[in-house]
Write a structure and sequence with these properties.
Layout (H helix, E strand, L loop, with lengths): L2 E5 L4 E6 L4 H7 L10 E4 L5 H12 L3 E5 L4 E5 L7 E2 L1 H4 L9 H8 L1 E5 L12 H9 L3 E5 L2 E5 L8 E3 L5 H12 L4 E5 L5 H12 L3 E3 L5 E5 L7 E4 L4 H14 L1 E6 L7 H10 L1 E5 L3 E6 L9 E2 L11 H8 L5 E5 L9 H7 L3 E5 L2 E5 L8 E3 L3 H13 L3 E5 L2 H6 L3 H7 L3 E5 L2
Parallel strand pairs: 2-15, 3-14, 6-7, 10-11, 18-19, 22-23
Antiparallel strand pairs: 1-23, 1-24, 3-5, 4-5, 7-9, 8-9, 11-13, 12-13, 15-17, 16-17, 19-21, 20-21
Helix pairs in contact: 1-7, 4-6, 5-6, 6-7, 8-10, 8-12, 10-12
The structure holds uridine-diphosphate-2(N-acetylglucosaminyl) butyric acid.
Length: 421
């Protein structure tokens, strides 16, 4: 298994491009199943999760061709070979469950393995199931698989999600595009990745209103057609690299960066003493002066502070002046990075969903273990500012969500190398 070695090396300077969003691409790709015409995605990120989704879609009969060094994905689902999403692929990546809505909509049936829990929480699918049942699906659990069918097709309905789940919103919106009649989805998630999905579905001929608000209305149509769509900027990759100069000093420009994707996060950076300036090409980030100040953070659905930046923010808070309280409200077990940061000298107390971080002057390099995607990059950020060498083990998590991390951070002057294992 590969590991990454980072050595604290002073300020970072330069400009790096931000890729297309993993979590947008992972919901745009299954949208191919809704149409027998080709769907082309541009600005796709080069990530192992995208390869896993390609593998899953191919197993269902779709053609997926990666072009231009992986940045263009040509998808075509002329015929669906099977409606069964096998456990062997689904267990690798939870986002596999995003084929459920499209398969039900087009084929009126789907057999999708339940993904099981993961390092950050149990992550059940009850919200997806209840919502799709409201659209007329009959769903039962057999042998670890959800067996869903909608004889005669799905029917539009009004439904309020019990929680604004990102994945459930995506599944329902995709399913409802081909349902008979109108679907009104209340308490829908408002994440930019959902807005991006709706923009693409609209290009494919779907009739949808209200994306980016908590009520999305979908008027079912008979068929969708082909389209070409650029994947929206990855706000989590953006936020992660914005934290690099915040932690190490220096000035970094994030090409393609947009404040509107990360307003709550930018407000916290401002309070911590980090300046974020809009430029013609993106965002420029630097410390305003001296040591970063501790700020409290509560993770919330969009437009709140994203859970996917909590671990990286904790890395910043480890060396901030004062005490920061970080509350994780989305996932029940998303502090696995805290004990690893403590091995580097951080002072953190975790109680349930709250982590209290007492800032120390400097962290010290250590061998650490990545437990999930965002945790791994938080350890890299911490290592960039630590004294000496940090070895981050189990980096396959990192490759799921950050393309060419050594290249990007290396371009800013970071001392970072991958050791093949
Ligand atoms: N939940 C339920 N029942 C459900 C669905 C969700 O209880 O049926 C709970 C989950 O267990 C969790 C919370 O609701 O505690 C939020 O889950 P949500 O469904 O909103 O998340 P998701 O769709 O599974 C996506 C991203 C995650 C990101 C979350 C929250 C993708 C592929 N994944 O997951 O991204 O953390 O939204 O914003 O879009 C990551 O990229 O590192 C990552 C984990």
């Amino acid at each position: 298994m590969d590991s990454i070695i980072v050595t604290g090396n002073g300020p970072l300077n330069g400009a790096i491009p931000i890729a297309g969003a993993k979590n947008a691409c992972l919901t745009l790709m299954p949208a191919t199943l809704l149409s027998d015409e080709p769907l082309t995605l541009t600005n796709a990120p080069r990530l192992s999760d995208i390869k896993t989704m390609s593998e899953l879609l191919r197993s269902l009969g779709a053609e997926v061709t990666s072009m231009q060094d992986g940045q263009v994905l040509a998808l075509s689902s002329h015929t669906i070979a099977t409606t069964k999403a096998d456990y062997e692929i689904v267990r690798k990546m939870r986002a596999s469950n995003l084929v459920l809505g499209p398969l039900l909509a087009r084929e009126h049936e789907a057999i999708v393995s339940l993904p099981g829990g993961c390092a950050i929480g149990a992550r059940p699918m009850d919200i997806h199931i209840t919502a799709l049942e409201t659209l007329g699906a009959e769903i039962e659990l057999k042998d670890g698989y959800l067996h869903a069918k909608a004889p005669g097709g799905l029917k539009g309905a009004t439904h309020e999600l019990r929680f604004a789940s990102v994945g459930a919103t995506e599944n329902v919106v995709m399913a409802a595009t081909l349902a008979k009649g109108t679907t009104v989805l209340k308490n829908a998630a408002r994440e930019p990745e959902i807005v991006d999905l709706v923009h693409c579905l609209r290009k494919m001929g779907a009739q949808i209103e209200g994306e980016g608000t908590s009520t999305i209305t979908i008027q079912g149509v008979d068929r969708l057609h082909g389209a070409t769509h650029p994947v929206v900027t990855d706000r989590i990759e953006l936020g992660t690299y914005m934290l690099a100069p915040a932690i190490c000093g220096g000035e970094v420009e994030l090409l393609g960066g947009r404040i509107d994707l990360l307003e709550a996060f930018c407000e916290k950076l401002d309070a911590a003493g980090i300046s974020v300036e809009e430029t013609e090409k993106g965002l420029k980030v630097a410390r305003k002066n001296g040591r970063v100040k501790a700020v409290d953070v509560v993770t919330e659905p969009f437009p709140g502070f994203p859970t996917d930046l909590q671990a990286q923010m904790m890395a910043l808070m480890c060396t901030a002046e004062g005490t920061a309280v970080l509350e994780e409200k989305i996932f029940e077990n998303r502090f696995m990075h805290a004990p690893e940061l403590m091995r580097m000298g951080a002072s953190i107390e975790v109680q349930g969903g709250t982590a209290t971080v007492h800032g120390v002057e400097r962290l010290k390099g250590a061998p650490v273990m990545a437990t999930d995607l965002r945790a791994s990059v938080s350890l890299i950020l911490a290592g960039l500012a630590a004294e000496g060498e940090t070895i981050v083990n189990r980096v396959y998590h990192l490759d799921r969500g950050y393309e060419r991390v050594e290249e990007k951070l290396g371009a800013l002057g970071a001392k970072i190398e991958r050791v093949k294992g």
